[in-house]
Design brief:
alpha/beta, Nucleotidyltransferase, domain 5, 2 domains, five-stranded mixed β-sheet, globular, Ppx_GppA_N, GppA/Ppx_hydrolase, Ppx/GppA family phosphatase
Length: 304
């Protein structure tokens, strides 16, 4: 069965059109696309989605809707996460999606986001020992999920690369005080996650989303963004710390020069790397396994 999954987060909107198999075989990608729309622009400060951010999202979604029709997907599910949960004018966003896609988005809870991310990440994972602690670092929130065959515990906390950048990292490059303030927020958020998720039980840390995969690409020294090389690659805490320090010490122009860097991630990658590094320190992880499969894959599997 051919399905289409759309994940609309704080920083990006992504599409997966895939053929779902029977049995335990992996899904077969037909198309994967990602567009940086920064839907969460200013939400942490204003509590509202900016009209220009909704319009950027509409343009990307219209293109996705055309692709879905052309490829003949039988079922479609669009999930909207952190920014559209938090905004006071979320009704404007939902009306736009209904008009553009023909159905409303599901504005899911942080717990449901965590469960979909875990399912997408763990299917087919052959590296490391369970239980897995899956950490999905988004633009507005980060999900912590612990489990083996299924989810044992999950918690979503309000730290993400866009939220922390807008809240703290204003200089180019960020000052030591700005970095320290962001780090304090991350430490507090990890403590909050610990109230629900027993992270000390984890056998393997698995990291998801663009901040993790970009840090992995930089740690591996890739000369171009290569999903096959990144998927299930393991990098150490020291490698993550070195990349984080480098990114936070560089100007926007220097970060943009990396061949693995998506233009829409240049402004927020320092905060995303810092989230990963602090999480590893707080949970005592010596390494992290990066996964290119995440909530988008979980959404697709949920349509089976």
């Amino acid at each position: 069965m051919r399905v289409a999954a759309i994940d609309c987060g704080t920083n990006s909107i992504r599409l997966l059109v895939a053929d779902l198999p029977s049995g335990d075989a992996p899904l077969v990608d037909v198309v994967r696309e990602m567009t940086i729309v920064r839907l969460g622009q200013g939400v942490d400060r204003t509590g509202r989605l900016a009209p220009e951010a909704i319009e950027r999202t509409r343009v990307a979604l219209a293109s996705y809707a055309s692709t879905i029709t052309d490829l003949g997907a039988e079922r479609v599910r669009m999930v909207a996460t952190s920014a559209s949960r938090d905004a006071s004018n979320a009704d404007d966003f939902r009306a736009m999606v209904l008009q553009t896609l023909g159905s409303e988005p599901e504005v899911i809870t942080g717990d449901e986001e965590a469960r979909l991310s875990f399912d997408g990440a763990v299917r087919g994972l052959r590296s490391g020992e369970p239980p897995y602690l899956v950490v999905d670092i988004g633009g507005g929130s980060t999900e912590f999920v612990l489990g083996s065959a299924g989810v044992d515990a999950a918690r979503s906390v309000d730290i993400g690369c866009v939220r922390l950048t807008e809240r703290h990292l204003h200089s180019d490059p960020p000052t030591a005080d700005e970095i320290a303030a962001a780090e304090k927020d991350i430490v507090a958020a990890v403590a909050l996650a610990r109230e629900t998720v027993p992270v000390e039980r984890a056998g393997t840390l698995v990291g998801l989303a663009g901040s993790v995969t970009t840090v992995t690409a930089l740690a591996l020294g890739l000369t171009g963004y290569d999903p096959a090389a990144i998927h299930h690659a393991r990098i150490t805490r020291d490698q993550v710390a070195a990349v984080t320090d480098r990114l936070l010490g560089e100007t926007r122009e220097q970060r943009a020069a990396y061949p693995v860097m998506h233009p829409g991630r240049v402004d927020v990658i320092g905060a995303g790397a810092l989230v990963l590094r602090v999480i590893m320190d707080e949970v005592g992880a010596s390494s992290v396994v990066a996964s290119e499969h995440d909530i988008l894959d979980g959404i697709a599997w949920s349509l089976l």
